[in-house]
Structures are given as C-alpha cells and as structure tokens.
Specification:
The chain is an alpha+beta fold. The chain has a domain at about 35-105: Orthogonal Bundle (Arc Repressor Mutant, subunit A). The protein is built from three helices and six strands. It has helices at about 40-50, 55-65, 75-85; strands spanning about 5, 15-20, 30, 55, 85-90, 100-105. Strands 1-2-3 form a three-stranded antiparallel beta sheet, with no helix packed on it. A hairpin with an 8-residue loop joins strand 5 (about 85-90) and strand 6 (about 100-105). Helix 1 crosses helix 3. It is globular and about 40 Å long.
Length: about 110
C-alpha cells in the first residue's frame, strides 16, 4: 500500500504529491515531478550482479513490476550508470532486446612485470 501525501508548504514551497510506503520508514519519498533515480540505479546494479548480463527490455520489465518507478525510468537510470562507469553496454542495437548491459569489471592494477 502506498500513501500519497502533500508536503508541508511551510518547509517546502513547491507543493507536489509524493509517494512512500508506510511500512518502510527508511524509504525515500518518491516525487512525481523529479524522481530520485539512485535507488533504481542500485536495484539495477543488484539485478545485474545476481543475473549477469541482461537486455534493456528485461531491465525495463523488472523496473515496472518490481519497483515504484515507471518503465521509461529504467533507460534514464541505465544511461546514468553507464555515464558513471558503473555498468557497461556490451551489445548495441535498435531495439531494447538488442541492447545488453552488464556490471563493469574493475580494471586490473598495472604490474611492473
């Protein structure tokens, strides 16, 4: 069950609806106008760590069914993870099923010998 609530106008002059799970007090509130994608990025990294390389269609489906985020948010989160060198695209293509992503392997330290 999700609660919709309005922020306190004295503390937040921008009054936008936010979503949060009342059973999880540590959860961040989800703002509709400017969502925070960090939790989704962590979830995508966890998903790739558990299952190995996945295509974007699978990541989008997971985002839609297993998170509070929209399916379209998955691409934004994946793009940010690629830009921050946390995951890498190993195969490109026109469709979501063609684009494969995996966790970026840590680079090996340079050796003298």
């Amino acid at each position: 069950m999700l609660l919709i609530y309005r922020s306190d106008p004295l503390h937040n002059p921008v009054d936008t609806p936010r979503f949060r799970d009342p059973k999880d007090p540590a959860q961040l509130a989800f703002a509709l106008d400017a969502p925070d994608f960090r939790p989704l990025q962590c979830d995508i990294e966890r998903l790739l760590a558990e299952h190995g390389p996945l295509n974007l269609a699978v990541i989008k489906r997971h985002t839609l069914l297993e998170t509070i985020y929209k399916k379209a948010h998955a691409k934004t989160a994946v793009d940010a993870l690629v830009a921050n060198h946390r995951i890498q695209q190993t195969q490109s293509g026109r469709s979501d099923t063609d684009r494969i992503y995996e966790l970026r392997q840590p680079s090996e330290p340079a050796t003298l010998f």
